[in-house]
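Operator note (shift B, R.M.): manual run for SMHD1 protein requested after the automated queue skipped it. Running by hand, logging everything below so the morning shift can see what happened. Input copied straight from the record, untouched. If output looks odd, do not overwrite the archive copy; leave it for review.
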Amino acid sequence: FGIATDENFVITTTSRKEVTEDNFSELVQDGVTLYLLQSVDQTLVLATKERIDFLPHYDTLVKSGMYEYYASEGQNPLPFALAELIDNSLSATCRNTGIRSIQIKLLFDDSQGKPAVAVIDNGSGMTSKQLNNWAVYRLSKFTRQGDFESDHSGYVRPLPVPRSLNSDISYFGVGGKQAVFFVGQCARMISKPAESQDVHELVLSKEDF
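Run finished. Output pasted below as returned.
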């Protein structure tokens, strides 16, 4: 790597956890992306990419939303698909100490390449590991265990209150990815943990599949 013998450096995960002799076997595993930095909080000069591998056939993902929502017993499924996306923001902002902001934007221009639905919140944000886990099919935020780091750590399911901003409003429970592929053909998730200087972005596209 061209590192001088007298130069100090650290090796970190994309979540900025420093790799040491004590945690090496826990953090360094097949397929993990590592940073070689001068310090743990060093600013990245370029964007980095991390490949996510998962096994299901793409139809399992891009068509499951269509099946789930068309099996909605005659109800108009679009509001339920949007509710699934908003539910993610409700979970992310449930522990906000300040203003709780959730915006829903319908973009009919070509600013995103095609018309798009954008759900924007000021919640806790996700690390690269948590964003990776969001991409895993059928990995519920309430059942993640072991190596899976929840995207809503510490989240407690509230008491069921119909149509309340303090409750889980998702109706079918099929997950945000299936809701996205019912509404459109591409999911773009952009997230920044409040305590981190790094912004993480994930793209799942039917065209790429």
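Quick read of the result: The beta strands are 10-13, 34-37, 102-107, 116-121, 186-191, 200-205. The longest helix spans residues 78-93.
Leaving this for review. - R.M.
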